Amino acid sequence: MGWLDNRVALVTGGASGLGRAVVRRFVDEGASVGVLDVSADGLDDLEDELGNSVVTIAGDVTRLSDNETAVERTVDAFGRLDVFVGNAGVFDDNVTIAELPEDDEALAKSFRDLFDINVLGYLLGAKAALPELVETNGRMVFTASGASFAPDGGGSLYVPSKHAVAGIIRQLAFELSPTVSVNGVAPGYVPTDLSGIDSLERDEGGLIDESEFDPSVHPAGIVPTPDDYAGAYVLLASEENSRPMTGTIVRANLGRDVRGIGA
Ligand code: NAD
């Protein structure tokens, strides 16, 4: 018995990193999963790994029509939609306000390129999934971040965009309760393409070499893997196990916040 037996989910940005770990774990827990991502190669690879348990849709979260196609293809393949996971995101390489372009057009483009994916993309995915989720009394789960609460990795575009994600979670929970539940997971640093810390060597327990240990980034010298976070998404996707939770953002950061490091 899995926690998500007979459930159907749609995950954006599921071709790599955190999203991919979530897709894998959802399938392990009995779900069938639609995956929307811009990376066609990543999606092919995912299909090779997970076969008929997934249906993949190559598309861009910044277009409503691509989100609608993803919902449609998922429902065509698996008959219903119970869970929407908004996760696709991009980083700003810690750009400071002073480093943002001077030119109006270039500045607006930097802003839009990031906010369109990190913020608008979540809203469009939620909008496209909503009619199906209303049918199933479904659940939405969004990837937030420590940067949703305070400057904690990221610069003057990424951190405001992740604060906006906290706003999306709370507003949609307010609007949609009790029909659809809306929650988030706020991971701390995790090695993925986005965070660019893939290169750290870890032993089996996740402990990194002393020479690379930076206590401001890795409390207790532990570097989690994307898989370590996937269980929090399973919890929030599972109606049986998190029914009363809505508008909640689960902090999963190895104690960075309680240690007073970052958010
Ligand atoms: P990642 O780069 O490994 O994965 C992001 C995925 O999103 C990729 O598969 C990419 O192709 C996809 N994507 C990007 N733009 C897209 C678009 N326009 N349309 C569809 N798909 C698109 O990065 P990750 O670290 O797994 O990031 C996933 C989420 O986790 C992001 O929302 C990020 O902000 C958040 N997050 C990451 C960390 C971290 O340390 N890595 C910490 C906190 C939160």
Task: Summarize the helices and strands and which ones pair or pack.
Layout: E1 8-12, H1 17-28, E2 32-37, H2 40-50, E3 54-58, H3 64-78, E4 83-86, H4 104-136, E5 139-143, H5 158-176, E6 181-187, H6 226-237, H7 239-242, E7 249-252
Parallel strand pairs: 1-2, 1-4, 2-3, 4-5, 5-6, 6-7
Helix pairs in contact: 1-6, 3-4, 4-5
This protein binds nicotinamide-adenine-dinucleotide.
Residues 12-13, 15-19, 36-39, 42, 60-62, 87-90, 117, 143, 145, 187, 189-190, 192-195 line the site of nicotinamide-adenine-dinucleotide (NAD).
Describe the structure.
The protein is α/β, with parallel strands linked by helices and 263 residues long. The chain contains seven helices and seven strands. A seven-stranded parallel beta sheet has the order 3-2-1-4-5-6-7, sandwiched between helices. Helix 2 (40-50) links the parallel strand 2 (32-37) and strand 3 (54-58). Helix 1 packs across helix 6 and helix 4 (104-136) packs parallel to helix 5 (158-176). The model has no long low-confidence stretch (mean pLDDT 91). The structure holds nicotinamide-adenine-dinucleotide. The site of nicotinamide-adenine-dinucleotide has 29 residues, from helix 1 and strand 2. Pfam families: adh_short. Belongs to the short-chain dehydrogenases/reductases (SDR) family. This is SDR family NAD(P)-dependent oxidoreductase.
